[in-house]
Amino acid sequence: MTAAVLASFADWRAAQQAAVEQALSRFVPADAPAGLGEAMRYAVLDGGKRLRPLLVLATSAAVQGHAEAAMRAACAVELIHAYSLVHDDMPCMDNDVLRRGKPTVHVKFGEAQALLAGDALQALAFELLVPGEGSLPDAMSARLCRLLALAAGADGMAGGQAVDLASVGIALDQPSLEAMHRRKTGALLQASVTMGAATGTVGAPALAALTDYGARLGLAFQVVDDILDVTADSATLGKTAGKDAAADKPTFVSLLGLAGAQAYADAALAQAHEALRRSGLAETGTLHALADWVGQRNS
């Protein structure tokens, strides 16, 4: 990207991140009983890149989508992501103590409250997509709920996490590793794109291209994550570095080496850009910039 494009994208990203943060603060209740609201807000607010909401918003803009639906979908997908992090960090899974540069939710509030906070965030995500005042068309709400449920469930994020936990100490081959991460990480990133598309009207060829873009971007994101787990420190990452190797988890780096993993990420990002070009949509510059951002991130 040129310096001008980079500056324009940085301005757009900062403005949208601020809008998402404001919306999340409005939607996530502070007054849930017995301190639950505090734990929920701790899990969601004041941290993270908000990549998934940005993908929703950029895709919705590319298809001239429904603005309120886009923001609600952006927040819903971030709530699902946040709930998954709360649960993944718990001792029964990854047993991590650091997330987004601060103690994980179970460290701060206890395991039971963390479990409940995650449950409540998951429920709230779907509540946002079906507002009581009927401000979203019913068919759109239903479509958004289905896309998010499929991405979060047994054939998506939860299924991928199950495979991840079952694969500790096992040297997965490349197709198996790709299949795991298409579910664990990629499904929700892909859904961010398809949910954005579902807020507007898009033809089948363009939707297929956007879906492919989301899939390629999801794989690239995971490979970059694997690389950073090896090359970055905990302060930069905001989470414990070297955790995958210490837990003997299969990663793209353990399978391909650092150079091979970087080449894989570069190829996946090139395929994401090509998918956008196939979409035939006019306003995909921000989606291209988001793909570059994924490839260049350092945390």
From TrEMBL:
Asked if the record carries the keyword Magnesium, the reply is yes
For molecular function, the Gene Ontology terms on record are:
metal ion binding; prenyltransferase activity
An example of a Gene Ontology BP annotation on this entry?
terpenoid biosynthetic process
Q: Which cofactor does it need?
A: Mg(2+)
Q: Which Gene3D superfamilies match?
A: Farnesyl Diphosphate Synthase
Q: What UniProt keywords are attached to this protein's entry?
A: Isoprene biosynthesis, Magnesium, Metal-binding, Transferase
GO cellular component terms, alphabetically, are: cytoplasm
InterPro entries annotated for this entry? Isoprenoid_synthase_dom_sf, Polyprenyl_synt, Polyprenyl_synt_CS, Prenyl_diphosphate_synthase
Classify the source by domain of life. Bacteria
Query: Tell me, what's a Pfam family for it?
Result: polyprenyl_synt
Q: Does the keyword Metal-binding apply?
A: yes
UniProt similarity note? Belongs to the FPP/GGPP synthase family.
PANTHER family attached here? FARNESYL DIPHOSPHATE SYNTHASE (PTHR43281)
User: What is the recorded name of this protein?
Assistant: Polyprenyl synthetase family protein
Q: Native species of this protein?
A: Hydrogenophaga crocea
